[in-house]
Design goal:
Length: 338
């Protein structure tokens, strides 16, 4: 059995053929797609976070709205850029959203992806310290965020408060018990995956790795996952960790599918991202029987407990629900995922 969800980049544009033309469209259709995915039996609804772009940005209003309109599906991010975040304010937002959703939040966080603007986090008021990088700052924000989520008191109470306080140091409210164990780090390398395990976070591995060793992407990613699991065991954490991978997978079951995705290149790609040679995973697009055999060979999918299907959100809710349903119906049972 494998958890299967979707990951939406939340684009909107007025380009020809786009059914997501405004920010309002992107937000409302994201809610509708999460509801539809839950009805289809999918396990997760995840959303990218990008600032200064015509994409989803502030995640917690969206996650809270989805949490109020659904009852079983996991709701998450992939990923929140921690360079931009006030970790205490984020902990309050996350606690509230998780309580609304009944403990279904699965928050992916990370250093973030290449930005639309230069050093965008500076506009949000955050600047790395002397001799520190923006990645260092992201990890520092994450460390504070994780500590606050543990729910221990740390703030000295006012001796003459407006309202009575409980005894001892105060914690942030609202606190949602268990959310600390549902934080994932988006790791782009094998070394970062090991660090993720040491911090006691789940591993979210995406469609690219900031490494190129000459082996196929899925094998490099499988090695990353194994290194993560080994580091988790060595760290002595008590719970079982979770691991997700993201893939672009399309079952070609009708003419519309073939028009959109038939004939797509089916190889990995090596390119440059943030001046780092990186490996990008392939797109899977084929008839269901062919797709099943291709996916059987993907070592990283086999190693992960959660698969996130990246969806072309600008094609609209109905088509994306069809994409998800096609995988759940024609592919997942044949692979033993359902």
């Amino acid at each position: 059995m494998k958890k299967i969800g979707f990951l939406s980049f939340g684009h909107w544009s007025a380009a020809p053929g786009s059914q997501v033309r405004t920010a309002s469209d992107a937000l409302l259709q994201s809610i509708d797609l999460a509801v539809a995915a839950e009805e289809l039996g999918a396990d997760g609804a995840y959303f990218r976070v990008h600032h200064f772009a015509r994409q989803l940005a502030s995640p917690f209003p969206l996650l809270s709205a989805i949490g109020a309109k659904t009852s079983t599906i996991e709701i998450g991010t992939g990923v929140i850029d921690m360079r931009y975040e006030n970790p205490l304010y984020m902990a309050e937002d996350a606690g509230a959203a998780d309580l609304i959703a009944g403990g279904r939040l699965q928050l992916g966080v990370s250093r973030g992806s290449p930005e639309q603007v230069i050093d965008g986090y500076k506009y949000f008021g955050y600047v790395p310290g002397d001799d520190e990088s923006d990645a260092d700052m992201a990890r520092q924000h994450t460390d504070v965020f994780l500590k606050v989520l543990e729910g221990e008191g740390f703030a000295r109470p006012n001796p003459q408060p407006m309202f009575p306080n409980p005894p001892g140091l105060l914690r942030l409210e609202p606190h949602s018990a268990g959310l600390r164990d549902r934080i994932w780090w988006g790791a782009g390398s094998r070394a970062t995956a090991e660090w993720t395990a040491e911090q006691g976070m789940n591993l979210m591995s995406s469609t690219l790795l900031t490494e190129a060793t000459g082996v196929p992407f899925h094998q490099l990613q499988a090695e990353q996952i194994q290194r993560y699991r080994d580091a988790w065991t060595e760290a002595g954490h008590e719970r079982e960790p979770r691991v997700s991978v993201s893939r672009s997978i399309f079952a070609l079951v009708n003419d519309t599918d073939r028009a959109y995705f038939g004939g797509r290149p089916d190889d990995d790609h090596v390119g440059i991202i943030d001046n780092i040679r990186s490996t990008f995973g392939r797109t899977y697009a084929a008839e269901p029987d062919v797709l099943v055999e291709q996916l059987r060979q993907d070592e990283a999918i086999a190693a992960a407990d959660t698969l996130l299907l990246t969806v072309p959100n600008q094609l609209g809710v109905d088509y994306n629900a069809h994409v998800i349903e096609s995988i759940l119906t024609h592919v997942a049972p044949e692979l033993g995922w359902r």
